[in-house]
Design a protein that fits this description.
By secondary structure, the protein is of the alpha/beta class. The chain has two domains: 2-70, 60s Ribosomal Protein L30, Chain: A, CATH 3.30.1330; 79-232, Alpha/beta knot, CATH 3.40.1280.10. It is 33% helix and 24% strand. Helix 6 (98-110) links the parallel strand 5 (88-93) and strand 6. The longest helix is centred in the C-terminal third of the chain and has 15 residues, at 218-232.
Length: 234
C-alpha cells in the first residue's frame, strides 16, 4: 500500500510500531533536505530519492514530496470488541467514497469510538486516499472487515449492542437513548442503508434538515451522530 503526504508520513515515521511496516520511502531531494529529522539512521537504507515527476506517477493524489510503500493494512477481528463494556462502533453499509471513509475514521477517533465495521464487498477498503484523508487516524482505531453485515448485526445484538440505523424519516436523533453498547449504521452515499440492515436495526433515527437540502453527506451525518452519542453519555 502506498501512503503519501507529509502529515501522514510524519505520523507513521515517528511511530515505532507503524514504521516497522514501511518497506521503502520515496522522496524528492527538496523534501529530504528540508525534513532530515524524519529519517533516523535505521530508515536511511529505505530512502530512495526520486524526481518529482516520478512521485507524481506513483501517487494518485498530492504527495507533497514523499511516498511510503507500506505493508497492506491489517483488519481486526470482530471478537475484539464484542465483550468491551459500553463499546461504541460504527457500521458502514457500503460507503464508496474514500474521502467519506477517511473523514468518518478521523471523527470516530476524535470521539474515542472503538471500531468501524465494513463489508468486504462493494465498499471502499483502507487505501492510500483513506489513509491520507484520515491523516493517519486509521491507525488509531480498529477497522473490522466482515463478510455479511446482517450476520454481524445479529452477533452484535447477541452481545448486548443496540443498533441505530440512519434514515430520512425516523425518530429525531436527539430524542434517542444511546446508553450501553452502541452501534451506529451509516448508509451508502446514494441508497442509504439497505433494506435488510434497516429491518435489523433496533432504532431508526433521523437528523432533521431543511427542505432545501435532499440529504447530508455521509461523513457529516456520521459526525453529528457520533458526537450525539458522546454528548448523551456525559
Amino acid at each position: 500500500m502506498l501512503v503519501y503526504g507529509k502529515n501522514v508520513a510524519e505520523r507513521i515515521l515517528k511511530d515505532e510500531n507503524l514504521v516497522k511496516n514501511v518497506k521503502s520511502i520515496y522522496v524528492d531531494e527538496v523534501f529530504f533536505q528540508k525534513n532530515k529529522y524524519l529519517f533516523s539512521e535505521n530508515l536511511k537504507s529505505k530512502v530512495k530519492i526520486k524526481q518529482n515527476r516520478e512521485l507524481d506517477n506513483l501517487a494518485k493524489g498530492v504527495h507533497q514530496g514523499i511516498i511510503l510503500d507500506m505493508e497492506d493494512y491489517k483488519y481486526t477481528s470482530l471478537n475484539k470488541i464484542l465483550n468491551k463494556e459500553n463499546a461504541s462502533v460504527i457500521i458502514l453499509d457500503h460507503i464508496l467514497d474514500p474521502h467519506n471513509f477517511g473523514a468518518i475514521i478521523r471523527t470516530a477517533v476524535a470521539a474515542n469510538f472503538d471500531a468501524i465495521i465494513i463489508p468486504n464487498d462493494r465498499q471502499v477498503e483502507v487505501n492510500s486516499t483513506v489513509v491520507k484523508t484520515s491523516v493517519g487516524a486509521v491507525f488509531d482505531i480498529d477497522i473490522i472487515s466482515v463478510t455479511n453485515l446482517n450476520n454481524t448485526i445479529k452477533t452484535l445484538k447477541d452481545n448486548g449492542f443496540w443498533i441505530y440505523g440512519t434514515i430520512m424519516n425516523g425518530e429525531d436523533y436527539i430524542e434517542v437513548d444511546y446508553n450501553g453498547k452502541v452501534c451506529l449504521v451509516i448508509g451508502n452515499e446514494e441508497k442509504g442503508i439497505s433494506k435488510l440492515v434497516k429491518e435489523n436495526c433496533d432504532f431508526l433515527v433521523t437528523i432533521p434538515i431543511s427542505s432545501k437540502i435532499d440529504s447530508l453527506n455521509a461523513s457529516v451525518a456520521a459526525g453529528i451522530l457520533i458526537y450525539e452519542v458522546v454528548r448523551s453519555r456525559k
